[in-house]
Write a structure and sequence with these properties.
Blueprint lengths: L1 H25 L1 H8 L6 H20 L2 H9 L6 H25 L1 H7 L6 H26 L3 H32 L1 H4 L8 H16 L16 H31 L7 H15 L3 H22 L5 H24 L1 H4 L14 H17 L1 H5 L4 H25 L1 H26 L6 H20 L5 H22 L15
Helix pairs in contact: 1-8, 1-13, 2-8, 3-7, 3-11, 3-12, 4-5, 4-7, 4-11, 5-7, 7-10, 8-10, 11-18, 13-14, 13-16, 14-16, 14-20, 14-21, 16-19, 18-19, 20-21
Protein name: Lipopolysaccharide biosynthesis protein
Membrane topology: Multi-pass membrane protein
Keywords: Cell membrane, Membrane, Transmembrane, Transmembrane helix
Length: 496
């Protein structure tokens, strides 16, 4: 249990930066939807461009985050040497990417159908190059068990980005009207979407200064043998990482191309992307768990077989994923105000998107069988299959059913690869997961969710009270069955 307590502690700290940070970051969604009307498709442009940068980020990191953890924890390897070689490789790849993109900026902008805004593309090229390089110092902080610094940098970046967005999108327009001379030398009212990218670029540059201590104090020497081994290990992770991010972003990348009217596609994409953000709690929990779980698993693997612990971690992840799902859906009457009213038509996808996030988290938990056995090619196979399912369903159904089809396509894609990973994993690296216990939690959550939707209460306040009671039933079952109060630190002081 000491291992699980350590995992829980790190997850809580990483979760603080992830949950608080993402919550603060998603406060930008009301801002964006308020200043960018749904009918303009401007938020669709933002979502489309960020979808491409998410894909490129995976290319440039090359799976080296996981590779670093694997080799830094490998017997006989010097962690600082592994870290230095990882920095050199990812940094070099990022630099080459920036040079090539700047040389061919206008053709790339035209290919992405932003011929009038190569500046958007240039800014995001720089952002994604900086972010990919910074992923390695972030991984080093996780390896060194320094979640406080990790969380602090993340939060600083997010708060700074929010302040810059408020400056460009709210303060500058106000000053442009009431004190034009103060901002006329740099501010252009029509450049609204562009200032979102400007804010991101500024903070990515500033963030580099925080990593100065992590970038010195060791020798930058290329170990060709080690680097070759790391590339060989990481390449399959790159493949399923690329396909994995395509699973998350392919709909946003191709969406405008699935309509005869590209503008209509951007409008729908903006609505879909904005309302999907309401499902942020699930994504935040999954990310926080991942940050803590990856170094935890590789570290524990050196100590011997810990399959019972992996089984318990899966169970608790599943339980709290369902709790997050119910919390979001029960309080939708409040959370819908995260987006402007003209985006509310897309709120029907929130439950579906959260279902996809649950499958994604389960798949991540299952994925360690092929990482620990060094059979990472399986991750590539699964990711390709999932991507094919998502892509095919989007192309087939989106022109008819719109963004609801995109949401269900994600559920189908992640559901298929979760099932495949479980079946094959049980043959390659069997882990006895508590499926019966998990099924009981799933049934209970489903019953409570159906009750919340089928019991019609017109008064919003009473409806929230009723749904809160339903949520408390689920929490009470968790406390009775798997998390007695006397086992919870601090709380156990008051429980005999």
């Amino acid at each position: 249990m000491a291992g699980l307590k350590s995992l829980a502690k790190d997850t809580a700290i990483y979760g603080l930066s992830s949950i608080v940070g993402r919550f603060l970051n998603y406060l930008l969604v009301p801002l964006y939807t308020a200043v960018i009307p749904a009918s303009t498709g401007g938020y669709g442009v933002v979502s489309n461009v960020y979808a491409y940068t998410a894909l490129i980020l995976v290319f440039l990191t090359f799976g080296m985050e996981t590779g670093f953890f694997r080799f830094a924890n490998k017997s006989g390897e010097h962690p600082e040497k592994v870290y230095a070689n990882t920095l050199i490789f990812v940094g070099g790849l990022s630099l080459i990417f920036v040079i090539l993109c700047m040389l061919f900026l206008h053709p790339i902008s035209a290919l992405l159908e932003y011929p009038d805004h190569p500046d958007y593309i240039a800014m995001m090229v720089l952002v994604v190059a900086l972010d990919s390089f910074q992923c390695i110092p972030f991984a080093y902080l996780r390896y060194k068990k320094r979640p406080i610094k990790f969380a602090s940098i993340k939060l600083f970046n997010i708060v700074g980005n929010i302040l810059l967005n408020l400056f460009f999108l709210l303060l500058c327009p106000w000053l442009d009207v009431h004190a034009h001379q103060l901002v006329s030398w740099f501010y252009r009212p029509e450049y609204l979407v562009g200032y979102i990218f400007v804010s991101n670029l500024i903070m990515s540059l500033v963030q580099m200064f925080f990593f100065i201590p992590e970038l010195r104090g060791f020798s930058y020497r290329v170990d060709k043998v080690l680097l070759k081994q790391m590339i060989s290990y990481s390449f399959p992770i790159l493949v399923f990482g690329v396909v994995g991010i395509l699973n998350q972003t392919i709909d946003k990348m191709i969406y405008p191309f699935l309509f005869d009217d590209r503008q209509e596609g951007l409008v729908q994409l903006g609505i879909y992307s904005a309302t999907s953000k309401v499902a942020m709690i699930m994504a935040m929990f999954t990310q926080a768990f991942r940050y803590a779980y990856e170094p935890f698993v590789f570290g524990k693997n050196k100590e011997g077989d810990n399959r019972k612990m992996y089984s318990a971690a899966m169970k608790y992840f599943f339980i709290f994923s369902l709790l997050a799902f119910l919390a979001v859906m029960f309080y939708m009457d409040i959370l819908r105000y995260m987006v402007a009213r003209d985006y509310w038509e897309g709120l029907s996808v929130v439950a579906i998107v959260m279902g996809a996030e649950i499958f994604k988290g389960i798949y991540f938990n299952l994925s360690f069988w092929y990482k620990l056995t060094d059979e990472t090619q399986w991750g590539a196979y699964f990711s390709i299959i999932g991507c094919a399912v998502i892509l095919a369903l989007n192309i087939w159904l989106v022109p008819t059913y719109g963004y609801v089809a995109s949401a269900w396509a994600s559920v189908a894609g992640y559901g298929v690869i979760t099932l495949l990973s479980y079946i094959i994993g049980q043959k390659k690296y069997p882990v006895s997961y508590p499926l019966k216990d998990m099924a009981v939690y799933l049934i209970l959550a489903a019953v409570l969710f159906v009750l919340s939707q089928e019991v019609i209460i017109s008064n919003v306040g009473l409806r929230l009270v009723f749904r809160t009671l339903l949520l408390l039933i689920f929490i009470a079952y968790i406390l009775k069955k798997d998390l007695p109060l006397k086992t919870i630190p601090f709380v156990n002081r008051f429980v005999k």
